[in-house]
Predict the 3D structure of the following.
Amino acid sequence: MTALSFGLVLTGVLLNAGAQLLLKAGTNAVGHFEFTGANLVPVGWRLASEPHIVGGIACYVISVVVWILALSRTEVSIAYPMLSIGYVVNALAAWWLFGEAVTPVRLLGIGVIILGVFIVARS
């Protein structure tokens, strides 16, 4: 994998992870909600107009473009497992930003993911 290919893959992964974090921040701002026929439009509007959610969707759109560029330069069997880096980024960022728990079992899982990504990247 070339440096450009790796950079595109990593950028796509980070944009995707950022999108998840922005969506979570947006749902935190909106609060708990139920989709029912009566509140479909009001809740849908609140979600569609929440800046974090709009930013998250924008990150997804950009990540798709970056991902297509990455796939044009990298084998999908190498690029796709790299998406697992997003799990690591999101777990740590959710702990830092939202106070979510990162238990020893989760840390072990993160270690396994890092090892797996390293092995795939070296193949």
User: Anything to note?
Assistant: Residues 3-30 form the longest helix (28 residues).
